[in-house]
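Marked as duplicate of an earlier ticket. Keeping the data here for the record.
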Amino acid sequence: MQTSFFKHPTMQITKQKLKLTAARLVNHHVNLAVTGLSGSGKTAFITSLVNQLIEANEAAQLPFFSVVRESRLIGVKRDVQPNLTFSRFAYEDAMAKLTQTSSQWPSSTKGISQVRLKIKYKKSRGLSKYLTEEATLTLDITDYPGEWLLDLPLLDMDYAQWSRHCEEELSDPKRNALAKPFFAALADLDLNAKGDELALQNIAELYTQYLVDCQSHGYQLLQPGRFILPGELSGAPVLHFFPVTGTQLEQQEVDLNNPAKDSNAELLRQRFKHYKTQVVQPFYKEHFKRFDRQVVLVDCLSALNRGFHSYQDLQKALDWLMGSFQYGSSNILNRLFQPKIDKLVFAASKADHITPDQQTNLVKLLESMLHSARKQIQFDGVITESTAISAIRSSKSGLGQLNGESIPVLQGRNEQGSAITLFPGEVPQSCPGPEFWKQQQFEFPKLSPPILNAEHVLPHIRMDQVLDFLLADKLE
């Protein structure tokens, strides 16, 4: 009996070599960054993304995720994360909170965390399909406080420039009022006097409180970000600095580019520089520059609720944030030496807080906010997608009666857990002018998470479309 040509030992060796070569050429790894400012829903998004993938072959509803639709997904499991110095993303804790009798939203991001998934699938095309029918994609997802992102533009500023920038921000009447305790303490500081670490610490704490108060009043562009969420740097002297005013510099005859030796001014300048070089820059090098796919979550609805100042500040913060990433087409050679983000999703979160007929308006509102930032991104050749999502859907849509007419309504639970039926109102397609806000306000609801009981699959809106956009080309 003759041995098949394809089973000949020489052909088997050749086939193994071809498999190895194909494995080296094909990208089987994706680094996904999930970004957004506090309250945008990063933890809920990652929890849902992991849940949808792990449960994809069970009861998950993913009709627009091609690898599932085509029955090519074999299975997904969590794997040991690559960076052991990061916190483990608390997926199990989040699911425990969501599935308990009195369900709760997962805890917000406080520091860096990471999760790695292994996605095994059947190939659909290409030469490699004939070398091996199955393949595994490694997906690394990194979560970190969005406030840290806003520090990256500081790398292009010196202490004098940053102080001028902060002074411009403080000219806003609402910010100025919140900063009164800080201003009072700053006025008593002699910048030319010998450096007093305790005095600087006390004023830095007042400046930190000012930033926290700004955040609670709906402001988003807040620096330094580590002052609000210090992580492992809590209490460290590297966070004991603050901006100074032009008036104070003029009155005390201080040149920040050449301050008196060992003075308060010199100490402030040194700490700002140290913060950039030892905190911000390493964070950028170690994390941001290795990402190749990105999700930017934006909570447009909360900004509308808080008023015109919050909406405008969110738009400025997004412009700052988007300038901090590397974009551009990514090929094999580029990926070996300088990975760049080549796919980007802008997602307006909490789409379950409005009726389905308003979700198109929400996407248009998001696109109007990102208009200037997207021009450069598209020029750099990045594939982008704008959408409205709910990572964990907490409402159901239906119809109600008002004055004898049917209107779209939402059914869900308020923050106290009581069942409610309401019409949240219309979403504008672009930001209304300042005069509009003086006469009318938005009031989109805050909802409790859904009651899941013993269910393992999280309900969602468009998470399957997000997954397909981010991963489909890697799962072919």
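See parent ticket for discussion. Residues 156-283 form one domain.
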